[in-house]
Amino acid sequence: MPDDSDRVEPPELDPNEVLYVDDDRFAADNVAIVTGAASGIGRATAFALAANGLTVVGTDVDEAGLDGTAERVADCDLDGRVATVAADLTDADEIAALVDAAADEGTVKYLANVAGLQHVDPIEAFPAERFDRLQDVMVRAPFLLAKECLPHMRASEDGTGCVGNMASVHGHYVTSDKVAYNVAKFGIRGLTQSIAAEGDGSVRSFSVSTGYVKTPLVTDQIPDTAEQRGISVDEVVEDVMLGQSRASEMMTPLEVGNLFVFGFSKHAGHLNGGDLTVDGGMTLTYE
Q: Cα-flanking dihedrals φ and ψ of residue 36, to 5°?
């Protein structure tokens, strides 16, 4: 059994671990916008899409982290590249400017809404301003980004495009002390289905639901969860994060990034409004 540090720290992004797809639309003149691209799943998704030859416009408030993502892609000499645009997803004007900047890089065909936040508190103690911020970043911003991107997708040469949204097992069932996150993840699934309903089959959407992934968002909440539940950090890893799963290890960010590669590809033509639930059996099995 690996030690706890190995179990929660993400491995370095490796081109050999990327899902490569033969798809004519995965080309340098087509652009994928990826939010939360400075770290975690966002960085891994940007990496995987660039490895498949797309031009990626990665965005985040963390400019240093964005630079690190672009540098990792450049160091690996991938077929695609990452351009970075720092933006605050709570600001509608910055969202519009982000999409305009992406359109300057090529044809906007793909949008991966990955950026996420977390706050752990019971409902009675949950700060309203934190609740609002989580909704702004994880529901309102994906809506505004889709609103800005859809016209570009419809106006592209073949009129196609795809929006992928990072949901969660917490968009299927909830755990205590994470009310804002739970509500946001149910909301992003509703947005996904709304885009599909209005996409006329040409512009698709899908969501991705995983259990716990080796990202800073997860590792940073371990001490808070331990304190809230009155248990040890080890017990959080064993009982909370892996306890319901049939898997013995958390997913890596790149494994999640590969789900976006598949979802955007021609092989997912009938994935429209649906959710890729890849959670190690967390939600649909029991002992």
A: 70, 30
The CATH number that applies at residue 41 is 3.40.50.720
Per the listing, tokens 């639901």 go with 209
Range of the domain at 170: 4-216+252-278
Q: Which token pair is 181?
A: 């996150």
Helix axes 253-264, 40-51, angle to 10 degrees: 50
The span from the CA of 144 to the CA of 155, in Å, is 18
Q: Would you say residue 222 lies in a domain?
A: no
**Over the stretch 175-225, which tens digit does the pLDDT of each residue have?**
899 999 999 999 999 999 999 999 999 999 999 999 888 877 676 667 777
* Domain count across the chain: 1
- Is 181 a residue of the active site? yes
Does residue 224 fall inside a structural domain?
no
Q: What is the DSSP string of 237-281?
A: IIIIISSS-S-SSPBPHHHHHHHHHHHHSGGGTT-SS-EEEESTT
From CA 39, how far away is CA 66, in angstroms rounded? 8
Tokens of 238: 């064993």
Contact criterion met (CB below 8 Å) for 164 and 113? yes
pTM as predicted:
0.91
Which residues 6+ apart lie within 8 Å of 140 measured at CB?
90
Q: What is the pLDDT of residues 225-274, one digit of tens each?
A: 788 788 887 777 666 666 666 666 778 999 999 999 999 999 999 999 99
Q: What pLDDT, in 10s, does the model give residues 37-59?
A: 999 999 999 999 999 999 999 99
Query: Phi and psi for 72 in degrees, rounded to 5?
Result: -65, -40
Q: State the catalytic residue, choosing from 110, 173, 181, 212.
A: 181
Report yes or no: 137 and 89 within 8 Å, Cβ to Cβ: yes
Asked, for residue 242, whether it belongs to a domain, the answer is no
